[in-house]
């Protein structure tokens, strides 16, 4: 059973920054990709960004210029750097790794709260 470790959420004032981490043992050796999602209260889940298996990254238009996805191959970890946070960014953020021939793995979710 793969244990996904997600961390980095918390409370911050508008304009602040947070960095979320998602560690999936085997992520690098299995050549996985990862998506970040968020879900605010009473709203549908929203795709936020991803790192693809080839290492390329992209983010949703709603966070472009503020959020960045990166990965540390040596640590099997993917990061979601969130800058210039807004109250509308308040949500539970989750990571989901997809690994061809190995499976899909989800983090437990971490709460991000941005106050005005």
Task: Tell me about this structure.
This protein has no helices and 11 strands. It has strands at residues 5-7, 10-13, 18-23, 33-39, 46-51, 57-59, 67-72, 77-82, 91-99, 103-106, 110-115. Strands 2, 4, 5, 6, 9, 10 and 11 form a 7-stranded mixed sheet that branches. The chain starts with a strand and ends with a strand. The mean pLDDT is 96.
In short:
The chain has 116 residues and is mainly beta. It has no helices and 11 strands.
First-last Cα distance: 40 Å
C-alpha geometry: globular
Oligomer: single chain
Number of distinct helices: 0
Relative helix content: under 10%
Structural class: mainly beta
DSSP strand tally: 11
Radius of gyration: 14 Å
The arrangement of helices and strands along the chain is: EEEEEEEEEEE
Low-pLDDT regions: none
């Amino acid at each position: 059973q793969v244990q996904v470790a997600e961390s980095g959420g918390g409370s911050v004032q508008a304009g602040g920054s947070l960095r979320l981490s998602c560690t999936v043992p085997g992520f690098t050796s299995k050549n996985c990709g990862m998506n970040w999602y968020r879900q605010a209260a009473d709203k549908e889940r929203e795709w936020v960004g991803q790192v693809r298996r080839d290492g390329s990254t992209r983010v949703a238009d709603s966070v472009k210029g503020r959020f960045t996805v990166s990965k540390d191959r040596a640590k099997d970890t993917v990061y979601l750097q969130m800058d210039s946070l807004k109250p509308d960014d308040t949500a539970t953020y989750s990571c989901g790794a997809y690994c061809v021939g190995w499976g899909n793995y989800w983090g437990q979710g971490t709460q991000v709260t941005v106050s005005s």
